[in-house]
Amino acid sequence: MMRRLLFNLMVWSAVLIVAFPLFWMVVTSLKPQLELWARPPAFLPIEPTVEHYVTLLQDTNFLVYFRNSIFLSTATTLVVIGVATLGAYSLVRFTYRGRESLAMLVLFTYLLPSVVLILPLYLMMVKLGLANTLFSLVLAYTTFALPYALWLLRSFMAGIPEDLESAALVDGASRMGAFRDVIFPQLLPGIISTALFTFILSWNEYLFALVLVNSDASRPLTTGVMNMLISSFNIEWSLLMAASVMMSVPLIIAFAFLQKYLTRGFGAGAVKG
Q1: How many other C-beta atoms lie within 10 A of the C-beta of residue 233?
Q2: 190-247, pLDDT tens digit by residue?
Q3: Is the dihedral of CA 89, 92, 94, 96 positive or negative?
Q4: Intra-chain end-to-end CA distance of the chain, in Å
Q5: Which residue spans traverse the membrane (predicted)?
Q6: Which of 156, 169, 182, 142 lies closest to 91, judged by CA?
Q7: Which residues of the chain form CATH 1.10.3720.10?
Q8: CA 10 to CA 239: how far, in whole Å?
Q9: What is 60-269's CATH superfamily?
Q10: Which residue, among 218, 212, 200, has the nearest Cα to 117 in the 3D structure?
């Protein structure tokens, strides 16, 4: 009994430590400007207000940055999942020379620091006439998200019994038909969990967006908010906290609706065939 109580106390302490910065972010975004600089600071807002959210949405380019981030993260996720799913299927189900070397090369690409790829990518985008566009960021995000997704889906794919697909092929199904009707339903939890983490990687990316895009119309949230609210002489803390809350909403919604698939995907990825 005492051991269980101690364990629960440790778990809840860890949860509170992790959750407190998020709680303080929300509380700060609801404080009027005068309360924000009061000393000592009030733990909860005395007169809560949403004026910072109104200012953020009406008087800044936050919605432009938000739209760009939604587009970039969604487009990157679709491209990465489409390529990674077929790539993982090839690495697991087909036997050909250099298969393992190719898998290790993909892993090595993921291990490279992002800063190493910045200059080659920038020069490539300039040569192709894609610099300072959203499409250039989609390509750049794919470079670091694809190896990660491919290795995750390779693990999920290896956990699906090959006998199921063989039975479908014996019954007359084509290779694509067997993939669609047998493999894909089994792989779906893994695809959803991988897609979620790919979306998060793209949503939070900062370095590529900082270097490849300098137009306000093409900036995502990470660089747009930084450029808008943080300067060498001042930080708009109230607007920054409101922006941080708004930036967290899509991820919270995604986790809330996809949590069961995420848990199921972790279980599937732990089983090896």
Answers
A1: 4
A2: 898 899 989 999 999 998 999 899 888 889 999 999 888 887 778 888 889 999 999 9
A3: positive
A4: 40
A5: 7-27, 70-92, 104-124, 130-153, 182-203, 237-258
A6: 156
A7: 60-269
A8: 34
A9: MetI-like (1.10.3720.10)
A10: 212
